[in-house]
Amino acid sequence: MRKALVVLVVLVLMPIVLAFPSAQQVPQRVVTIRDAETEALVRAVAHPLFRAAGLDPAAIRITLLQAWAINAFVTTGNRLFIHTGLIQQTESVAEFAGVIAHEAGHIAGGHVSRLPEELRAAMLRQAAAMLLGGIAAVAGGGRGAGEAGIGIAMAGQNAAMRELLAHTRAQEQAADQAAIGMLAREGWSPLGLARLLERLQDQESLQVSRQDPYLRTHPLSRDRLDFVREEAARMGGAERAPPPAIEARYAMVRAKLDGFLDRPEITFRRYPATDASAPARYARAIALHRSGRRAEAVTLLDGLIREHPSDPYLHELKGQVLFEGGRVRDSLGPYATAARLAPQEPLIRIAHARALVELGDPASLRRAAQELDSALARDREDAAAWRLLATARGRAGDRAAADLALAEEAMLSSDFAAARMLALRAEPRLPPGPSLQRARDIVEASRRENLSPEMRAAEREARRRRER
């Protein structure tokens, strides 16, 4: 059984932070995680719960933050941030679903929108800071790699202000009540949420700096825990098991995060060679890859692929191992298979395109641009994909299209002056059509007078980071 970690930091990120520490106080940036498999799992759990709450899943942006501590929180603009530790440390997908339903309860209850204007503005600034932090694929760095960025030192923060920033107990009970309704409508038992709250309750007697951030930003009372237990009992009957496919995917994702975010020696201890389960072999393959033992990693992955030939994420990982091991041409087959099996996953197409761009011949560059166009049609907010598209277009000799792609990247990076300059440079060289119209749209949107408050906050944060 995994025990909820007691985090030894001064103050891990709360839903709102009213002041930013100096650069010296933040040795590392917040790290956001992008991984197709993990994001697909989160959507599979979260989207039905959002719909059960009367929310549009497309209107809620979910971001994964690399941090071992258990936490999830909502900020302004319907942004839901989830720590990777919430997946790594929960013992079942039912516990994870309970937390997601609770956060959906905060969104449906309008708890963020009811905050005073100055607090919502501070939340907006903090969200901008997180979204402009480092972005990584699920890759090494160790459990503490993102922790310093997320564990922003706020030792001078007033205790009364911390209480203002955390959700009130009344809001917590309202979110719990909404969560239980959502879980019931989707066939989940609230016992998962109850079990997680019981484990977190063991930390209530600890000093604040040693508690998990979820407990500090989501006040837990005996009444709250009793309410969840009573509702679970009222629903009656044995706990209904989650769909086997989701539970199995959850185990694979947890193993994947362990393999990429923990040191390899820790992964080998947690998932010993005597454990022949699919998640254990998955984690060991990743640890072998990160240890430079890529031939052994490919052997393990080939065994998993023989057992699960339709799993796109196994093929994707094999492609990654081969690509990062310098076998670029060999990586194309696994990446293409993964993209065929999961055509709706933009991150897989982007990984495939990266390998094609690395080859660099005209046919590969054309195929890379096609993959990136397909990926960006589904997710236009991936700045790295726009930069990769600019590289593919530029190497193919299409400088106007390359400049337009760089303008898109600059917009997403909140460098609006650069976006305007690049769009203006591209505009006279683009043929009539959607690309020309998009360049004109960027020119207009990047005018100072047209920037929204959120865009201005993001621009200030981006400028602050560039000036460090």
UniProtKB/TrEMBL annotation:
Biased composition (Basic and acidic residues): 438-468
GO MF term set: metal ion binding; metalloendopeptidase activity
Stretch list, region Disordered: 428-468
Record InterPro entries: Mito/Outer_Membr_Metalloprot (IPR051156), Peptidase_M48 (IPR001915), TPR-like_helical_dom_sf (IPR011990)
Pfam family, any one: Peptidase_M48
Limits of the Peptidase M48 domain: 39-231
CC annotations in GO: membrane
An example Gene Ontology biological process: proteolysis involved in protein catabolic process
Signal peptide: 1-19
Keywords for this protein: Hydrolase, Metal-binding, Metalloprotease, Protease, Signal, Zinc
Cofactor(s) this protein requires: Zn(2+)
Name used for this protein in its record: M48 family metalloprotease
